[in-house]
Design goal:
Length: about 375
């Protein structure tokens, strides 16, 4: 479709007034086009894809690709709607602002705090995932070490300026994109060279439907796949929470939102089709990352170690984004009187540091879960569920 037919419209009026538009100080627009584009890409590639997709495949079988396509299709329209409203009034800081402005204060309160809770839970899941990856890279490392160090690192990444956060996410996203493209390329080579089946590439692709068809567990298994798959998309809305700190939002937000379908097809559907074509889906271990498993199968031991590092940075990226978004959400809630006033104050660098520290404290729940469960993937599944 042409850019004219897909671009998000920008109404010239600002009919709805922002409840806090006259207050000082203000957040600064420090995120440029490359930051917001990679933030959108990184947000669309969550920890659930790297760590949780093995579990999702075990539940839904090959139909998991339809699960991700359906979720991505629906979320694209959610993001389109969010973009339309955010751009109708550039004083809106996030979707909590326009929910409260249009539907009433109760909607702003409910949306803001439920979103905060969602990202805190997601951050806890990311802490659990990081501890699991550290254990794989350095067996014997006490799980409490990464569970304690990660929140400290996140604070250091977010305290300086919003541009510092943008730079960190830019490189985190680059790493994730390169990893997925490398996996797809490796898988294509394995399929084309009859790596796992001497009968040819068609026989490899037949792994998708040979064992029970595309819906081996029926409708019930297909529905079960949505639970962890939805978690994998956590972060896709980050371009909306970053609207108040985005340079030239009329141009940059539509670009980021309109590319969502392409990202879903490439990063989710493309990667999972390759994984299940190379490995019969029943042979994929639900307790580990299928990304690591495929590189190990290819005999690329070093690559498997590198992918461990990649998925570790992916989890760190997700947690970093979560802390950013929750701090801005709590800041907005405080500005509107829905949170303690102390959370509505900015540092000299225009960062809501009180809100940031408040959210980071709750990430320590990951430490409790790591020792309460029987395994890292068990703790991860509990949190994501």
């Amino acid at each position: 479709m042409s850019e004219r037919t897909t671009s998000i419209s920008v109404p010239p009026s600002t009919e709805h007034a922002d409840p806090g538009q006259s207050r000082e100080p203000h957040l600064t627009r420090g995120l440029g086009n490359r930051h917001i584009q990679l933030l959108a890409i990184g947000g669309a590639i969550g920890t659930g894809l790297f760590m949780g997709s093995g579990k999702t495949i075990s539940l839904a079988g090959p139909s998991v690709i339809f699960v991700y396509m359906i979720i991505g299709f629906m979320l694209f329209f959610v993001m389109r709607a969010m973009g339309e409203i955010l751009l109708s009034n550039l004083n809106y800081k996030s979707f909590s602002d326009f929910a409260g402005d249009i539907l009433g204060p109760w909607a702003g309160f409910f949306t803001g705090w439920s979103y905060w809770f969602f990202w805190v839970v997601t951050g806890v899941a990311d802490i659990v995932a990081i501890a699991g990856y550290v254990d794989k890279l350095a067996p014997g490392t006490p799980l409490w070490i990464p569970a304690l160090i990660t929140p400290v690192v996140l604070i250091l990444l977010n305290l300086p300026t919003v541009k510092a956060f943008g730079e960190a996410e830019f490189w985190f996203a680059i790493i994730k994109v390169v990893a997925i493209i490398a996996l797809i390329a490796t898988g294509i080579v394995m399929i084309a060279t009859n790596f796992t089946s001497p009968s040819g590439a068609v026989a490899n692709l037949a792994n998708m439907w040979n064992d029970g068809g595309m819906f081996p567990h029926g409708l019930f298994g297909f529905i079960l796949g949505f639970q962890i798959a939805i978690f994998a998309f956590a972060g896709i809305e980050l371009v909306g929470t970053a609207a108040a700190e985005t340079k030239d939002p009329e141009k940059n937000l539509p670009r980021a939102i309109n590319s969502i379908p392409v990202r879903v097809l490439l990063f989710y559907v493309g990667a999972l089709v390759v994984i299940m074509a190379v490995n019969p889906w029943r042979s994929i271990d639900p307790a580990s990352s299928p990304f690591i498993g495929m590189f190990t199968l290819a005999g690329l031991g070093i690559a498997a170690v590198v992918i461990n590092l990649v998925v570790l940075t992916s989890a760190a990226s997700s947690a970093n984004s979560g802390i950013y978004s929750t701090s801005r959400m709590v800041y907005g809630l405080a500005q509107d009187g829905n949170a303690p006033k102390a959370f509505g104050k900015l540092s000299v660098r225009k960062v809501p540091q009180n809100a940031l520290l408040f959210s980071c404290i709750f990430l320590l729940a990951g430490l409790v879960l790591l020792y309460a469960g029987d395994s890292v993937i068990g703790a991860f599944t509990i949190v994501t569920s």
